[in-house]
Write a structure and sequence with these properties.
The protein is an alpha/beta fold. 32% of the residues lie in helices and 25% in strands. A seven-stranded mixed sheet has the order 8-7-16-17-18-15-19, sandwiched between helices. Helix 1 runs parallel beside helix 9, helix 1 runs parallel beside helix 17 and helix 10 packs antiparallel against helix 11. The longest helix has 12 residues. It is globular and about 65 Å long. The chain binds flavin-adenine dinucleotide.
């Protein structure tokens, strides 16, 4: 059975790789000039920066490990790294283990005590779909939901948890289904953040190199069903006839193609909102306090549009030239962007508020990640179901809006899909 995959981001390429492993003929069309979608490592004087993911959560014997081994992708882990939450005007360390949270000033004592009761909270049916804040409040208490969750979610989805469905982070329901979150986390084991040698962009490049037919600069513009049940795809002056089409595209791009052939799916996918975020990369004199640090997230009400900063030069030392520390600051998302965060001066002022010893930047780079992150709001489950149910035979849709926000979610989701 021949397959044409539309979209050469990590989802489309990994799906193509699975099909090719099964001996099926597969071709990928990517609209951009190069593969990778959001997962690209771009050169920057003496180093590089990431347009999307900074790292991926890896664990031995999991989907991420299996694909990294199969495509012989060398990678390394920087270790655990110190992390903080900015709250009450200062950076508070996030303890490395849940028991150590009991001694942290991140939450009031009552919230910590309530959190300890999580293993005894009964499991609730998956239906009806719950909001993310409501889910965390039910399992871990209102204190965790209001004091800790907002910064954690801002760091992954750049949106407030009250806006989101529990399905925004599918692992939560999977863990609860084992009896409790504590049990689920214990059973699934500890994952480590890893980065491929040369940056995250090496993952799509290595996948593409293993595939026999990847076309770039080719945007699919039209899908037509043929009388024999096959599909015709056209765009960029090219046409293909194929047994199966896989749309490995953000929901809004998939909706545009599906409109004329699957109106129910198109409508459901068009209703999935996406969040934009501004990324500011900056290089500074290294600070001892941030030397072995993952970075910090700001409790959103206090951040006022400044969501936090990572330290890529710790995660991936090749990213910055010797003697410089590289930061990546996240601005806006679904929280909106006040005027003072339009230019570097305002962002530097916010950084200085949280890290007073930070030097002036030696170099700065701004990238806008437009409609980059799906925002699974309450009702997401019904939208995804309706989209999948409405797909005609021979058409499929794969995306982080279906499997979950992270690269790990996508690679795990694809292993289930291929079975
Ligand atoms: C700023 C940012 C930071 C992130 N950080 C992390 C992180 O640290 N860890 C983590 O695990 N995840 C992270 N993520 C999430 C992760 O990067 C994404 O989930 C993943 O890259 C999505 O891949 P994708 O292939 O599904 O989509 P995309 O990357 O959007 O790829 C879709 C591709 O389809 C192409 N396309 C669109 N329309 C057409 C068409 N009509 N025809 C052909 N091609 C088309 C596009 O050009 C694009 O290349 C981050 C994301 C962003 C944006």
């Amino acid at each position: 059975m021949s397959t044409l995959i539309l979209g050469g981001g990590v989802t489309g390429l990994a799906a193509a790789w699975h099909l090719q492993q099964r001996g099926e003929p597969v071709e990928v069309w990517e609209a951009g000039a190069s593969v990778g979608g959001w997962m690209k490592t771009l050169p920057w004087e003496g180093g590089h920066f990431e347009t999307g993911p900074q790292g991926v959560l890896w664990q031995k014997g999991t989907a991420v490990d299996r694909i990294f081994c199969a495509i012989e992708l060398p990678f390394k882990s920087p270790g655990t790294g110190a992390r903080w939450v900015g709250k009450g005007g200062r950076l508070i360390p996030v303890p490395a283990s849940p028991p150590a949270l009991m001694f942290s000033s991140l939450m009031p004592l009552a919230a910590k005590l309530r959190m300890m009761a999580e293993p005894f909270i009964p499991v609730r049916d998956a239906e009806p779909e719950e909001g993310l804040s409501a889910f965390i409040a039910r399992r871990l208490g209102r204190g965790v939901a209001t004091e800790l969750l907002p910064a954690m979610v801002a760091g992954v989805l750049a949106a407030p948890p009250e806006m989101l469905s529990v399905d925004a982070i599918p692992k939560l329901r999977q863990w609860e289904a084992t009896g409790s979150l504590v049990n689920g986390i214990r059973k699934s084991g500890v994952s480590h953040m890893v980065v491929p040698e040369g940056g995250m962009g090496q993952l799509p490049l290595r996948l593409a190199a293993k595939l026999s037919a990847v076309r770039t600069g080719l945007r699919a513009e039209r899908l037509t069903s043929l009388p024999d049940g096959r599909w015709r795809v056209s765009g960029g002056g090219e046409t293909r006839e194929t047994d199966r089409v896989v749309l490995a595209l953000p929901a809004f791009e998939a909706a545009a193609l599906l409109g004329p052939v699957a109106s129910q799916s198109a409508e459901a996918l068009a209703a999935i909102p996406y969040t934009s975020v501004d990324l500011w990369h900056s290089r500074h004199t290294p600070l001892p306090a941030l030397k072995d640090s993952f970075g910090f997230l700001i409790h959103p009400p206090e951040g006022r549009g400044y969501l936090g900063s990572l330290v890529p030069s710790w995660m991936d030392p090749q990213s910055a030239p010797d003697g410089l520390m590289q930061l990546r600051s996240f601005i806006g998302g679904a929280f909106g962007k006040p005027e003072d965060l339009e230019a570097w001066e305002g962002i530097y002022a916010r950084l200085k508020h949280w890290i007073p010893a930070l030097s002036e930047a030696r170099a700065v780079r701004h990238e806008r990640a437009d409609r980059a992150i799906p925002r699974p709001e309450l009702g997401h489950r019904a939208r995804v179901r309706s989209a999948l149910d409405g797909l005609p035979a021979g058409v499929d849709w794969l995306s982080n809006a279906r499997f979950g926000p992270g690269v790990r979610d996508i690679l795990e989701g694809l292993e289930t899909w291929i079975r």
